[in-house]
Specification:
Distance between the termini: 50 Å
Helix content: 40-55%
Structural class: mainly alpha
Order of helices and strands: EEHHEEEHHHHH
Strand order of the largest sheet: 1-2-3
Number of helices: 7
Radius of gyration: 26 Å
Largest sheet: 3 strands, mixed
Number of strands: 5
Strand content: 5-15%
């Protein structure tokens, strides 16, 4: 017999898709079970179980994060983080260059800006305070965009 759960108080029977499929056969145990529930609970509500959303994600490098690792990483938060760092002027200059370039070439340049931010501050998710005492080498916005657009062109040529 397939899995199901029953809540007596709300009189709700939650079933899987496989249970629902088996329930359609009047000779099956699932059908007989549902009919018994209906006799005992005339106001029975039957709902299908949906999949569970993932609570943990694992990156390609093996790092584990809760849900989306870039959740809440908005333009505003990136700017505030950069502004709080020593040598923030040079980081903000490159950030602004990448942001302006990305918004000019595509309608939503967030992905490109986020990629630059992660390349510039790889320890941001694990240990953001790391950057208060360490100043990483500046990732040139121009060089970064050159590499990113070259990678995109290569993918487009292969698709053609």
């Amino acid at each position: 017999m397939e899995k199901f759960s029953f809540d007596v108080i709300s009189q709700t029977l939650t079933i899987t898709a496989q249970f629902a499929k088996m329930m359609n056969d009047p000779e099956s145990d699932e059908y007989k079970l549902v009919m018994r529930f209906r006799q005992d609970f005339p106001n029975l509500t039957i709902t299908k179980k949906t999949h569970k959303s993932a609570t943990h994600c694992t990156t390609k490098s093996g790092e584990k994060f809760n849900c989306n690792q870039f959740k809440n990483l908005t333009y505003d938060r990136m700017e505030k983080f950069i502004s709080a760092l020593p040598k923030s002027e040079s980081y903000l200059r490159e950030y602004s260059f990448v942001k302006d370039f990305a918004s000019a070439i595509q309608t939503n340049g967030y992905t490109l800006v986020r990629k630059w931010f992660v390349a510039q501050f790889p320890e941001f998710r694990k240990n953001p305070l790391f950057y208060l005492s360490h100043s990483p080498e500046l990732v040139s916005g121009f060089q970064f965009l050159d590499e990113e657009t070259a990678g995109t062109e290569t993918v487009q040529k292969k698709a053609s």
